[in-house]
Design goal:
The structure holds two protein chains of two kinds. Chain A is mainly α. Chain A has a single domain (5-193), classed as ABC transporter involved in vitamin B12 uptake, BtuC. Chain A has twelve helices and no strands. Chain B is of the alpha/beta class. The longest helix of chain B has 18 residues, at 164-181. The radius of gyration of chain B is 18 Å and the shape is globular. The chains are: A mainly alpha, B alpha/beta. At the A-B interface, helix 7, helix 8 and helix 11 of A face strand 5 of B.
Chain lengths: 267, 258
Amino acid sequence: MLDDFMVRAALAGLGVMLAAAPLGCFVVWRRMAFFGAATAHAAVLGVALSLALSMSVFAGVLAVSLLMAISVTLLSHRGYAMDTLLGVMAHSSLAFGLVAVSFLSDVRIDLMAYLFGDILAVGRTDLGIIWSGSLLVLGLTLWRWQPLLLATVSEELAHAEGYDPRRESLVLTVALAIVVAVAIKVVGVLLIAALLIIPAATARPFSATPERMAIIAAGLGIVSVLGGLWGSWNLDTPTGPTIVCVAAILFALLNTIARFERGRSSD
Amino acid sequence: MALSGPIMANPQHPLIEATGVNVHIGGRQVLQDIELSLSAGEIVTVVGPNGSGKSTLLRALIGAIPVSSGRVSRGPGLRVGYVPQRLHIDPTLPLTVGRFLNLPRRHGRHAIDQALARAGIPGRAGAAMSALSGGQFQRALMARALLDEPDLLMLDEASQGLDQTGTADFYRQLEEIRDQLGCGILMVSHDLHVVMRAADRVICLNHHICCQGHPEAVTAAPEYRALFGTDDEEALAIFRHDPHKHPHDHPREDNHAG
């Protein structure tokens, strides 16, 4: 079964969504959308470094994303505005990454594959990496769910209960870096943030509790992956962007319906 | 009084103690040489003008703000129920009242319903936190703080959003809670009038502790008068429950045995 590239692609997409959906909810709740995008952009530098050092792309991307995410978290306590810091660091590392890639003339690399992903080229090893990374992130998120949620509602309440909100946000930072590293093959650095944010945002109007929102987001993410694969097969379009298009169409459709329903119930 | 728990069994040990605490925020000294200790069964109110460091003091005590020097020691296993001054829940986060009360420890449906009924918002477990009025929201915060029967209850301007009757009831309720749980209560308020009645001890704060003691003694202290000016005459009058001077006060306040 794993010999079929479409099956591998579907499994890769599902694996990523399993981790990205609950994590994406925290990204939305904590207003970290730009943080997610910035961490993903920094991954291009990781791609360049791992190709130059001929090491695993996964390891290189993970290292650079982690470095980026942790240094932004630490620097933001020193009086810089978070979005300014992210703007400086994310775009610098993207630019350095693109320049570094141009030096690697002896290695023929398809930059497009890293910018937009290449889910149809996912091999068995990639699949193993994607699923181990995703399960690790899912496990981390579930393990820290209650304290993370409390720290998201109020850092003070978390302190009063004896938790350290900075440690909890470090957990999120590490989880985010892992998701970026595993999702790069699926949708590419430019669209990873979309997988985190769009399903969570779509799920919001249909959720009364945080848990429901995470479960609905995962469902929507899975529908987007399968719909995107089907669409790109039939329309002969790039797969990663097609997955994100399906997620965006779901967002528009379901939000319109939610608005309509709310308008009707308030009459 | 029946006291429970390992901390309660040892009344001579303070629940929480600050020794020589200094706090700087952004290079500015907000708290200076704070010496404070609070025991089980005590209601202590911190009063002070705006920007005097009252909320900072509470945050430093729970560890949300690092102290630049000095020490905050909590009793071992101290359970703190904290009611913050305000809580902003992001509109993207769906949260029912029941779910909020289950943070970070889950409780049975029955315990949640009971806590909400006690707090004066019965049957609201399924309501969204964002659908509550200011007063109901404050009650939900209080219900959550009391769920685990805290050893120490900390309230930061907890009467915000309550009307005059609500505020009076609220402080009366604090005494009941103290008597039931045997916990210590540390609160911050500008609400001088009512606070003065409920507290066993008042701490007058203006970056450092100006004076502290029994409410009546503190209101007579020159340091207190320097901070609160003419306000104190009014506060003192109400503390003494003079109904003729303030006929507009809620009549229920007069029931208090003076």
